[in-house]
């Protein structure tokens, strides 16, 4: 009897270790093993159905496969065992005749009752906790998409408009570039976010309620089995409840298969997100990014922004060249040239980006001859030889 209990405990521990290993080891779908490179024409179905990829990820399928075996055993094995035990097999356990056989039967009965009650309580806690986390995760994803992803796109659009606006005109002239790609992304994402919040979030709440009910029913049924054993109930009632147990066993076994598949999908999704953070090959970099570039014309927008940025940068450096040159001596002939040009620029064409403008401005300083005149009242300066535009 002790050996049987130890064997059952060892098997349960092995299953839990396999579950933890399968979940924690998952990294990604590894579609980069199937696809040749980044393309919007890459097929997810081709990736998922590739036999080489499936064979390489065999450790990740252990727990779903075990859950599927439990379901098959519940559908086929339990009815066969029930019929065999009731007919002729294991009479010492099912129909004990001697007093010693009666003791063995009751010992086995209590062992399985205790295991069943403990497992039912554990499953109930995990179901409730998992359903709550799932609902919270769904709400958080929608919230982050609306208030972080969309804010990022809108802030990028606003920054482009602000940096490329001609403030020297009255009124300021906005850049003549097509920002419709940002509007298209914003409209599409907003539509799907509102669709998910209005139509699908309620199902997560309903699933949480259903899972709590199912988990509670499981615990209740196991406790009823404990009551039957304590009261030594016999006759038609335990047989009817056995049929009810069988129905719920099928339901829980099927839920186990579905949940383990969801675990695989979600852990693979987390792995894909990690790959995207590091910009490594994966579903995002090799499929979603090319698909987005195909759907939304950011290439043309990038070219327009670069062209407009070059114009604004050259205009800024051209304005600065009216007040600076590379001659350290101040001359009344060029009395407006009171600064030494940063980066020794001589023409506005040397400024092709806003970064170039910033570098030039930071390195522009007052000519040494005019330092005491223009910078004498500057505080916190150790040397007056270089009084920059910033100081």
Automatic annotation (TrEMBL):
Q: Which UniProt keywords apply?
A: Membrane, Signal, Transmembrane, Transmembrane helix
Q: Where is the signal peptide?
A: 1-25
Q: Where are the transmembrane segments?
A: 61-87, 108-129, 206-231, 243-266
The name this protein goes by in its record: Amastin surface glycofamily protein
Give the species.
Leishmania donovani
């Amino acid at each position: 009897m002790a050996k049987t209990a130890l064997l059952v405990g060892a098997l349960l521990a092995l299953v839990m270790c396999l579950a933890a290993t399968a979940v924690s080891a998952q990294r990604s779908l590894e579609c980069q093993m199937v696809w040749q490179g980044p393309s919007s024409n890459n097929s997810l179905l081709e990736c998922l159905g590739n036999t080489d990829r499936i064979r390489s990820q065999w450790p990740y399928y252990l727990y779903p496969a075990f859950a599927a075996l439990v379901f098959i055993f519940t559908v086929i094995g339990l009815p066969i065992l029930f019929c065999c035990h009731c007919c002729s097999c294991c009479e010492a356990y099912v129909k004990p005749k001697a007093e010693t056989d009666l003791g063995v039967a009751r010992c086995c009965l209590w062992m399985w009752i205790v295991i069943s009650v403990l497992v039912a309580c554990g499953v109930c806690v995990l179901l409730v906790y998992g359903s709550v986390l799932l609902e919270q995760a769904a709400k958080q994803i929608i919230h982050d998409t609306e208030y972080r992803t969309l804010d990022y796109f809108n802030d990028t659009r606003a920054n482009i408009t602000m940096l490329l606006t001609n403030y020297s005109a009255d009124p300021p002239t906005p850049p003549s570039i097509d920002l419709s790609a940002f509007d298209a992304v914003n409209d599409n994402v907003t539509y799907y976010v509102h669709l998910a919040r209005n139509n699908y979030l309620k199902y997560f709440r309903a699933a949480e309620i259903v899972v709590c009910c199912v988990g509670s029913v499981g615990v209740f049924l196991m406790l009823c089995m404990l009551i039957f054993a304590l009261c030594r109930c016999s006759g038609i009632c335990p047989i009817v409840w056995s049929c009810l147990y069988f129905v719920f066993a099928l339901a829980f076994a099927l839920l186990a298969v579905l949940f383990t598949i969801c675990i695989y999908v979600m852990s693979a999704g987390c792995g894909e997100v990690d790959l995207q953070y590091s910009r490594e090959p994966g579903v995002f970099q090799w499929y979603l990014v090319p698909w987005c570039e195909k759907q939304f014309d950011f290439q043309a927008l990038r070219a327009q922004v670069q062209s407009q940025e070059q114009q604004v940068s050259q205009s800024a450096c051209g304005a600065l060249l009216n007040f600076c040159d590379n001659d350290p001596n101040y001359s009344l002939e060029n009395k407006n040239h009171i600064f030494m040009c940063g980066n020794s620029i001589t023409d506005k064409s040397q400024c092709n980006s806003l970064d170039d403008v910033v570098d030039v401005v930071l390195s522009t300083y007052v000519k040494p001859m005019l330092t005491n005149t223009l910078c004498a009242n500057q505080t916190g300066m150790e040397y007056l030889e270089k009084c920059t535009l910033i100081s």
